[in-house]
Amino acid sequence: MKIVPLGPPGVGKGTLAKKISENFQIPHISTGDIFRRLAEEGDPIGAKARDEYWGHGNLVPDEITNELVRITLAKPEYRENFILDGFPRTRDQAEALDTFVGDYIPLLLTASDQTIRTRILNRLTCSNKDCEGIYNSVTKVPKYARKCDCGSELIRRKDDNKKALPIRMAEYQKNSPGVLAYYGGRVLEIDAEQSSEKIYQEVINLFS
After folding, report:
1. Model confidence at 146, in pLDDT bands (50, 70, 90)?
2. Catalytic one among 13, 36, 91, 119?
3. How far apart are CA 45 and CA 48, in angstroms?
4. Helix and strand tally (H, E) in the chain?
5. What pLDDT does residue 30 have?
6. Which residue, among 99, 141, 110, 138, has the nearest Cα to 122 in the 3D structure?
7. Which end of the chain has fewer beta carbons closer than 10 Å to its terminal beta carbon, N or C?
8. Which residue pairs from 74-77 have beta carbons closer than 8 angstroms and sit at least 24 positions apart in sequence?
9. Residue 50 designated active-site
10. Residue 89 annotated among the catalytic residues of the structure
C-alpha cells in the first residue's frame, strides 16, 4: 500500500497518515518532519530550509525537496509500503515522484478555509520525536494541559501562526491546480470536514 495524501496545510494529512501508519505498521514519511528534524540537529540544509523558507510559510524549492524524497524513498524499508505526507506540493514534485516510485494512490483531503484556519492556529504537536502526536486546543484537546499522552511537552510548529498562514494558503492555492491537473482521474477525494475518526474509516473503506 502506497498512499500520498494531498490537500491544504492543516487539513489533516499528518493525522491521517499517523493513524494508518500505527494501525497497519506502514512507514510514515513526512517531509515537514524531516526538514524540522534536520534544522533542530543543525544540519545546513535543514537550517537553510527553516530560516529561508518553511519558517516563514514559504515552500522549500523543488530541487531540494525532490532530492530529499528521492534519497528517502530509495531506502529498502519503503519499497513495498509507505504513506508520504507533505509531498508533492507542486506539479514538478508530482512528476518527480512518478520517477521515484511505481503505483501509488493520490488521496485529496478537502475542507473549508475556516476549518483550515481553526485547525492550524490551534494545533499542538508532541515535542517527542519518537511520538509526534498531534492535538488541537479546540477540536482535539489533550487530556493534560500542554502535555501529550506520552507525557512530553506539546509545542506549536514554527509556521503555525497568523503571519505565515496566509502565505501558506496562497502557496497551496497557486500550486494545487497544477498537481491535480497532472494526476487527473488518479485522485481519490475525501471530505476532511469530518472528524479524524470518520476520515480514517472512510479511507480504510476505500482500500477494503
Report:
1. confident
2. 13
3. 5
4. 8, 8
5. 87
6. 138
7. C
8. 74/100, 77/27
9. no
10. yes
Q: What is the pLDDT of residues 49-87, one digit of tens each?
A: 888 887 777 778 898 888 888 888 888 999 899 999 989
80 to each of 19, 50, 97, 190, how far by Cα in Å? 18, 31, 15, 24
Instruction: List the catalytic residue out of 48, 147, 157, 158.
Output: 157
Query: Residue 138's CB: how many other CB atoms inside 10 A?
Result: 11
Q: Strand 82-85 and strand 105-110: pairing?
A: unpaired
Domain 2-111+166-173+185-206: CATH superfamily is P-loop containing nucleotide triphosphate hydrolases (3.40.50.300)
Q: Which DSSP state fits 85?
A: E
Catalytic residue among 19, 89, 91, 119: 89
C-alpha cell at 32: 515537514
Indicate the pTM of the whole model.
0.83
Q: What tens digit of pLDDT does each residue of 8-38 get? A: 999 999 889 989 998 989 999 888 777 777 7
147 is an active site residue: no
Residue 13 annotated among the catalytic residues of the structure: yes
Instruction: Name which of 44, 45, 54 is nearest 158 in CA terms.
Output: 54
24 sits in which H/E element = helix 13-24
DSSP secondary structure letters along 102-115: S--EEEEEE--HHH
Q: Judge whether 123 counts as a catalytic residue.
A: yes
Map out the domains of the chain as residue ranges.
2-111+166-173+185-206
- One-letter amino acid for residue 105 of the chain: I
The residue from 19, 36, 91, 123 that is catalytic is 123
pLDDT band at 48 (very low <50, low <70, confident <90, very high): confident
